[in-house]
């Protein structure tokens, strides 16, 4: 099956790691004309959602361990109800044994403590990796412009810490740091120096990008992209083998540094969520409690998502809310507490490493605390409108480009695409200082307010008389813009266009790429431009009714850095559709407690506007693009269709559906059962009293059936093709002089979820969402009529929303 994955289409993995899976080599059945749970890769061990009564008995029945029992095939959805039932049974067993001996009691205590120990390990490991990524990425980014003579491992800032220059024009220069022009041609200014620095910048960018895409292509195709769409899908119960494996973790960590250092319009914040989830998945293998239960493992992955945001932004509380609001499918109260603990440990670990060198945890701490005025809500809302419009347009453009990449020859040449985009980015970025610097540095520059010691062109104001020197920086009056500020505004306008266009082509390429920083950069530039415009308007027209009463000449009325913060929040909200978690992240990120209301106003406005133009955020759009079976809890279904309209086979035999394939409770031989299983790819078979009555008894899974048959042929004497397969209890009398019966009652699920044929689809959709079902059976007066799978639900919802139902690839 070609082009089935977000990051791995058209890739052929060259690794032998057993964690790796190549989607392009998978053989999946996506046919629409089967009335059953189709595909031998679909639900091979998944029940209908009910408690699998015979699972434990099946394990006791088998004389030896058979690989695959109790696990799931790749690209399958787990059975949440069965997994939770297994966990409750395990807890009951531990509680009973704990009363029998002190050793069992200690085992019970260890089992209860293991979750917190796992959270501690995840926090420590993720925080250490995030610190390593931050330090290395900063050094390699500066390496494109020069090198430190005192130690090549120092970045520009660390190299100049011992510099004695403190004047406005020399404080950013130091003799220890040399540009490539100084090292190669011995000059630091003029056309030769500019050309050499330009060429070295482009060459380093191409080298970093080429190494990143080559490593991803050769060793870990799953290491590309943001990772958040796939993690959302995995947390909803989907299985993607190798996506959170140790090999993916190692390659993602290395290539994330290379991709960020190349100067592409991307960030590391989204991929850090993927890195943290990889850490959690690897560490889960040390604890049988989580290794053997997919539902418990997803509780850990939800906490790991919070850890990823915590180390990305230094926002532990925002990380917990991000996991709860944006990515998690099942989030019980104990997961909330453990997520908070893990995020705290990760933030403490990152703070101990101090990758930013400023003894602060947050990335964009703001020094100003000037009050904002009520009338400024109008420009804040305007920024929210801009963020919503840009977010909706960006999603449409990016999805259109990614779809073109998947369906045309462009997707066959991922290395060429990455190199071409990197070349265009580097060539266009170098002449503009605001595109040449990294995204984090740009946002930090835009968030800052001007003080008397700032030599930035953004702070080039006139009339800085001696009377202002005694005032704190946050009380400096609004002043007319100087020549440097005018030049900076033109450069920022070009940088805004640069970021808006190139991010569309960058996000989704075959390198690790986050979207938080580019989105925030677009909004921060727009906000700073609007903030400076409002500042100049207030200076020249302070007598207007708009400013009269709260802004007089010589007063500090407008803070452009605040507008940049609000704009960044609005654009990020328009792209991701985050709300509460976004405001908390921005508050923690900047430390600006006074600005909660402006951030809330911009966030709500951007979400309303973006939702009016398109209901999906960027992550949901990529999930739908890849055909993943994700039931979005935010998507409403209000159509008046019934279960009989969606089930297969359809009522009245419409669409030419073949008849339902079922097993009789007592009336089939082993040969007939093997012929039915061998001639179909269904992952489960309803068991009925008889083929004539079609009275439902239960559901048996394909894999359990095959394992039981294979085990019986090996260990039960006399079993032949003529042996009866019996699911009833008590079993019928043995046929005299006949071969022994094959009694498979223990693998029969006697409580599959069922609905009647007249059940409204609104209720069916809610059942699938809240119980995590993969399929349910449709009956009429106890008689089996058909089956509804998760794939059928998603196709029906897509069809009712006038979308392509064939875009749903998995069940």
TrEMBL record:
<keyword id="KW-0129">CBS domain</keyword>
<keyword id="KW-0472">Membrane</keyword>
<feature type="transmembrane region" description="Helical">
    <location>
        <begin position="520"/>
        <end position="542"/>
    </location>
</feature>
<feature type="transmembrane region" description="Helical">
    <location>
        <begin position="240"/>
        <end position="260"/>
    </location>
</feature>
<dbReference type="GO" id="GO:0005769">
    <property type="term" value="C:early endosome"/>
</dbReference>
<feature type="transmembrane region" description="Helical">
    <location>
        <begin position="488"/>
        <end position="508"/>
    </location>
</feature>
<feature type="transmembrane region" description="Helical">
    <location>
        <begin position="377"/>
        <end position="401"/>
    </location>
</feature>
<keyword id="KW-1133">Transmembrane helix</keyword>
<dbReference type="InterPro" id="IPR014743">
    <property type="entry name" value="Cl-channel_core"/>
</dbReference>
<feature type="transmembrane region" description="Helical">
    <location>
        <begin position="113"/>
        <end position="133"/>
    </location>
</feature>
<dbReference type="InterPro" id="IPR001807">
    <property type="entry name" value="ClC"/>
</dbReference>
<keyword id="KW-0868">Chloride</keyword>
<keyword id="KW-0967">Endosome</keyword>
<dbReference type="Pfam" id="PF00654">
    <property type="entry name" value="Voltage_CLC"/>
</dbReference>
<protein>
    <recommendedName>
        <fullName>Chloride channel protein</fullName>
    </recommendedName>
</protein>
<keyword id="KW-0812">Transmembrane</keyword>
<dbReference type="GO" id="GO:0010008">
    <property type="term" value="C:endosome membrane"/>
</dbReference>
<keyword id="KW-0406">Ion transport</keyword>
<dbReference type="GO" id="GO:0008021">
    <property type="term" value="C:synaptic vesicle"/>
</dbReference>
<dbReference type="InterPro" id="IPR046342">
    <property type="entry name" value="CBS_dom_sf"/>
</dbReference>
<dbReference type="InterPro" id="IPR000644">
    <property type="entry name" value="CBS_dom"/>
</dbReference>
<dbReference type="GO" id="GO:0005886">
    <property type="term" value="C:plasma membrane"/>
</dbReference>
<feature type="transmembrane region" description="Helical">
    <location>
        <begin position="198"/>
        <end position="220"/>
    </location>
</feature>
<dbReference type="GO" id="GO:0005247">
    <property type="term" value="F:voltage-gated chloride channel activity"/>
</dbReference>
<feature type="domain" description="CBS">
    <location>
        <begin position="656"/>
        <end position="717"/>
    </location>
</feature>
<feature type="transmembrane region" description="Helical">
    <location>
        <begin position="300"/>
        <end position="324"/>
    </location>
</feature>
<dbReference type="Pfam" id="PF00571">
    <property type="entry name" value="CBS"/>
</dbReference>
<feature type="transmembrane region" description="Helical">
    <location>
        <begin position="272"/>
        <end position="288"/>
    </location>
</feature>
<feature type="domain" description="CBS">
    <location>
        <begin position="747"/>
        <end position="805"/>
    </location>
</feature>
<feature type="transmembrane region" description="Helical">
    <location>
        <begin position="562"/>
        <end position="587"/>
    </location>
</feature>
<comment type="similarity">
    <text>Belongs to the chloride channel (TC 2.A.49) family.</text>
</comment>
<dbReference type="GO" id="GO:0005794">
    <property type="term" value="C:Golgi apparatus"/>
</dbReference>
<feature type="transmembrane region" description="Helical">
    <location>
        <begin position="413"/>
        <end position="430"/>
    </location>
</feature>
<keyword id="KW-0813">Transport</keyword>
């Amino acid at each position: 099956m070609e082009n089935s994955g977000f990051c791995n289409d058209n890739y052929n993995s060259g690794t032998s790691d057993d964690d790796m899976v190549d989607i392009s080599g998978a053989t999946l059945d996506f046919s629409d004309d089967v009335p059953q749970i189709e595909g031998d890769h679909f639900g091979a061990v998944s029940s209908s959602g009910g408690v699998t009564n015979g699972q434990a008995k099946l394990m006791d029945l088998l004389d030896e361990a058979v690989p695959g029992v109790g696990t799931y095939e790749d690209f399958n959805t787990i059975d949440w109800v069965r997994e939770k039932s297994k966990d409750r049974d395990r807890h009951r067993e531990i509680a009973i044994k704990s009363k029998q001996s002190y050793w069992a009691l200690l085992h019970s205590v260890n089992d209860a403590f293991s979750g917190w120990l796992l959270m501690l390990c995840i926090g420590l490991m993720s925080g250490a990796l995030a610190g390593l990524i931050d330090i290395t990425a900063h050094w390699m980014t500066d390496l494109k412009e020069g090198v430190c003579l005192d130690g090549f491992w120092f970045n520009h800032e660390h190299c100049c810490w011992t510099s004695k220059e403190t004047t406005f024009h020399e404080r950013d220069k130091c003799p220890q740091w040399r540009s490539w022009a100084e090292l190669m041609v011995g000059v630091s200014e003029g056309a030769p120096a500019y050309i050499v620095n330009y060429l070295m910048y482009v060459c380093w960018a191409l080298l970093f990008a080429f190494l990143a895409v080559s490593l991803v292509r050769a060793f870990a195709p799953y290491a590309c992209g943001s990772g958040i769409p796939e993690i959302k899908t995995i947390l909803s119960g989907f299985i993607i083998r190798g996506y959170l494996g140790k090999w993916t973790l190692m390659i993602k960590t290395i290539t994330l540094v290379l991709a960020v250092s190349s100067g592409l319009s991307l960030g590391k914040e989204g991929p850090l969520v993927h890195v943290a989830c990889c850490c959690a998945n690897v560490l889960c293998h040390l604890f049988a409690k989580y290794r053997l239960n997919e539902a418990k493992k997803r509780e850990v992955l939800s906490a790991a998502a919070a850890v990823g945001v915590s180390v990305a932004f230094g926002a532990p509380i925002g990380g917990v809310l991000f996991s709860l609001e944006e990515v998690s499918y099942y989030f019980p109260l104990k997961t909330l507490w453990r997520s908070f603990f893990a995020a705290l440990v990760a933030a403490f670990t990152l703070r101990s490493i101090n990758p930013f060198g400023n003894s602060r945890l947050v990335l964009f701490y703001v020094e100003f605390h000037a009050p904002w005025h009520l009338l400024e809500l109008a420009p804040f809302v305007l920024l929210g409108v801009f963020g919503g419009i840009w977010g909706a347009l960006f999603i449409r453009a990016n999805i259109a480009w990614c779809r073109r990449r998947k369906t045309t020859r462009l997707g066959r040449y991922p290395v060429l695409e990455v190199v071409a985009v990197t070349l265009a980015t580097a060539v266009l970025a170098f002449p503009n200082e605001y595109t040449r610097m990294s995204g984090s540095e740009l946002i930090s520059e835009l968030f800052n307010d001007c003080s008397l010691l700032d030599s930035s062109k953004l702070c080039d104001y006139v009339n800085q008389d001696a009377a202002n020197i005694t005032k704190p920086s946050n009380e400096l009056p609004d002043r007319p813009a100087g020549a440097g500020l005018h030049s900076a505004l033109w450069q920022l306008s070009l940088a805004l266009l640069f970021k808006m266009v190139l991010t569309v082509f960058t996000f989704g390429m075959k390198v690790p790429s986050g979207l938080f920083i580019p989105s925030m950069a677009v909004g921060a530039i727009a906000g700073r431009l609007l903030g400076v415009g409002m500042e100049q308007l207030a200076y020249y027209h302070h007598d207007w009714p708009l400013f009269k009463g709260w802004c007089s000449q010589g007063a500090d009325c407008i803070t452009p850095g605040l507008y940049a913060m609000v704009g960044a929040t609005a654009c990020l909200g328009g792209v991701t559709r985050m709300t509460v978690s976004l405001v908390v992240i921005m508050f923690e990120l900047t430390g600006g407690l006074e600005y909660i209301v402006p951030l809330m106003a911009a966030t709500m406005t951007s979400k309303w506007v973006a939702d009016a133009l398109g209901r999906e955020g960027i992550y949901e759009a990529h999930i739908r693009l890849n055909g993943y079976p994700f039931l979005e809890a935010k998507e409403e279904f209000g159509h008046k269709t019934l279960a009989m309209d969606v089930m297969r086979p359809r009522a009245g035999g419409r669409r030419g559906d073949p008849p339902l394939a079922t097993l009789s409770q007592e009336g089939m031989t082993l040969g007939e059962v093997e012929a039915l299983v061998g001639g179909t790819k269904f992952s489960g078979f309803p068991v009925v009293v008889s083929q004539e009555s079609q009275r439902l008894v239960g559901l048996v899974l394909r894999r359990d059936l095959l394992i039981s048959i294979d085990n019986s042929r090996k260990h039960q004497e006399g079993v032949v093709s003529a042996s009866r397969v019996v699911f009833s209890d008590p079993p019928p009398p043995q046929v005299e002089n006949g071969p022994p019966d094959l009694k498979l009652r223990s693998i029969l699920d006697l409580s599959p979820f069922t609905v009647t044929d007249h059940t409204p689809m609104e209720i069916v959709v809610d059942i699938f969402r809240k119980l995590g079902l993969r399929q349910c059976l449709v009956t009429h007066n106890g008689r089996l009529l058909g089956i509804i799978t998760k794939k059928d639900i998603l196709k029906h919802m897509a069809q009712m929303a006038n979308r392509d139902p064939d875009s749903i690839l998995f069940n």
